Structures are given as structure tokens and as C-alpha cells.
Amino acid sequence: MKTIANLVTSLIVASWIGAIAILSVQNYTLVSLKFLGFESIELPVGIVLAFSVGVGVIGGEIAPPLWQLGGSEPQEQYEEEE
Predict the structure, then answer these.
(1) How many domains does the chain have?
(2) CA 56 – CA 51 distance, rounded (Å)
(3) Is the residue at 57 inside a domain?
(4) What is the pLDDT of residue 76?
């Protein structure tokens, strides 16, 4: 079952990379990001998307182990026996 999960994950990441590549080639518009009063330099949309997806994938892999270290494990639901 783990093999299927790895395959599906790989397919999702590969499709994201393909979509970013196609969008980057077709749309070379420069954008700048504004966050909390700070503004970035102007970058192509494809680079911004690739960076965002990369940060999201890395964050998604790092977050679950950090939650387990913090002691916030999922609570089990107990059913009352009659």
C-alpha cells in the first residue's frame, strides 16, 4: 500500500512541475510580492510558483514530525459500550 501512496505522490509532484514549466514558458510576466510592508524584487511568475510549491512540499514533509514532537497526537475516539 505504501508503494501506491509513493506513486500517487510522485505523480502529483510531477504534474505540478509540468504545469509550472508550461506556465513559465507561456507567461513571462514579472511580478513582485508584497507581505507585511516588504516588497520583493520583480520575478517571473514561474519562478514564484516553483518556489511556492517547493516550500509547500518541504513544509508538508516537516510539519507532521514536528507535531508529534510537540505531543499533539491525534485523539482517538472511544465508543461507549452498552
Answers:
(1) 1
(2) 9
(3) yes
(4) 61
Q: What is the mean pLDDT of the chain?
A: 79
Q: How confident is the model at residue 25 (pLDDT cuts 50, 70, 90)?
A: confident
Query: Is 61 inside any structural domain?
Result: yes
Sign for the pseudo-dihedral over CA of 41, 45, 46, 48? positive
Question: Which residues, 6 or more positions from 27, have their beta carbon under 8 angstroms from its beta carbon?
Answer: 45, 46
Please report the pLDDT score of residue 82 as a whole number: 54
Dihedral of alpha carbons 49, 52, 58, 59, sign: negative
- Containing domain of residue 33, as a range? 2-69
Cα 66 to Cα 72: distance, rounded to the nearest angstrom: 9
Asked if the structure places residue 44 within a domain, the reply is yes
pLDDT at 69: 76
A 10 A CB-CB count for 7 gives 10
